[in-house]
Amino acid sequence: MQGLMQDWPLTVDRALAHARALNPRREIVTRSVEGPIVRENYAQMWDRSKQLSHALGELGVTLGDRVATLAWNTARHMETWYGAMGIGAVVHTLNPRLHPEQLVWIVTHGGAETLFTDLTFLPLLEKIQDHLTLVKRFVVYADVLPATTLRNAVAYEKLIEGRPLDTPWGQFDEQTAAGLCYTSGTTGQPKGVLYSHRSNLLHAMAVNQGDAWGLRAKDCVLAVVPMFHANGWTLPFVAPMTGMKMVMPGAKLDPQSLYELIEAEGVTMAAGVPTIWAALVAYMQANKLKPRTLERVLVGGAAASENLVRAFEADFGIEVTHAWGMTEMSPGGTSGTLCPIMIERSHDERIRQKTRQGRALFTVEMRIADDDGAEVAHDGQTPGRLLVRGPAISKAYFRGEGARNPDGTVLEADGFFDTGDIATIDEAGYLHITDRAKDLIKSGGEWISSIEIENIVLGAPGVACAAVIGAKHPKWDERPLLLVEAKAGAAPARDALLAFLDGKIAKWWMPDDVVMVEKIPLGPTGKIDKLALRKQFGDYVLPGIGGN
Questions:
Q1: pLDDT lower than 70: segments of the chain
Q2: Which residues are catalytic?
Q3: In the chain, fewer beta carbons within 10 Å around the N or the C end?
Q4: Which residues lie below 8 Å from residue 537, measured CB to CB, with a gap of 6+?
């Protein structure tokens, strides 16, 4: 026997329609690429997105066609999401921080014939357009088309001007593809993750539970996390679902510009990666500033250091919520909010807990397995491979890349996805990622966590960024090599850094050497590029190696 409920397909246009109905005058504020602050509300966004849907239909874009975007966080970019997804096209977000050759590969593999872009990226696209053989037209986010050599280019405002609002949305199955985002490709070519309408809406509802983000209509969110990073952490869906005010920073992500937006627009919550927040903290400390309205900061994309959490909470009274996920998970997997057991613990214990990844969201199943696939104890001590399962977690990559099963999927036999992370889960359900499997250092047959050492070193005086990689050793196979980027004007000494680590990690985990570097390379998603560091220091000789 089945229930007698209405069929109400979960298509993403429902989110914007809800905002139009209940919060039509709530604002989306954009710092435009041209400079001025631009304001529109949800009713206007619905109209403009509908106009774009009609324009796309005139261009021949239809169900399943990919529409690429190479753009910053702006209202126009968000309109493109709804205008394209509403008619069943697939929005393929592109990361401008990728190498041009990799960008060409991703655009071609994705198969988009229409590409939307900001003025910022015209020089890049003009250089590579001859290699973008499938792209038939470029739409430039501008009022009037600037001088450009891009073929069949049109200004966005001219494209949608005067178009009717009658194009129907969502008249397709909720499992229809909605978005395409490629992994960062640290090993081999990037792989495409293909989100569905259903997965996007379920994910948006999951991440906004009370013990996760808990955002409401009265909130104002600063979306620093780029929309080209895994659904923009789903904020373009959560915002209209709740009716909250949304602030889009455009291309200016420096701390002064972000602080100005926070103050001017009354931002209550901001979401971004640790490097952005570390720069904001340093700016506020140096200028003796304190935000009036900012209550919470969501940190994701990389581990939040204890130093960063303490600075936000002690110096500014701003709560830090650490979230973890990955492109294949839409991306949210956990939230670092404290459960009742943790709230009762000491201040230092609560701070340390907030640097960990948090507890699984509803709709996300997690298990830790050993190399044979057997589940290990959730005791906070026993590490293993982190496996995940849920309705917003990928089962396969676009065009079957990386398939490990005859049906094209990449799943384990029991339907779980292997994240590639090594982790523990404690009795309260808190996840602690100890390393990426490929970044663990194996010394004398035992594993050393590079992430653990890095997070501690980030709290040392004068350290701006730190990375730990394995250096070759004739006796132990590998030993930790600590690479440190100093803060401006600082010069932390090798012995001082090792002394800072002493007592905080096991003796046999202590790095065999410390190297000061001018800049630690970051990948296109803002994470430390360990692959580049391993290549750079592949032949590094540790001190005293001849005596072993």
A1: 185-188, 445, 525, 546-548
A2: 183, 328, 442, 447
A3: N
A4: 469, 471, 481, 483, 515
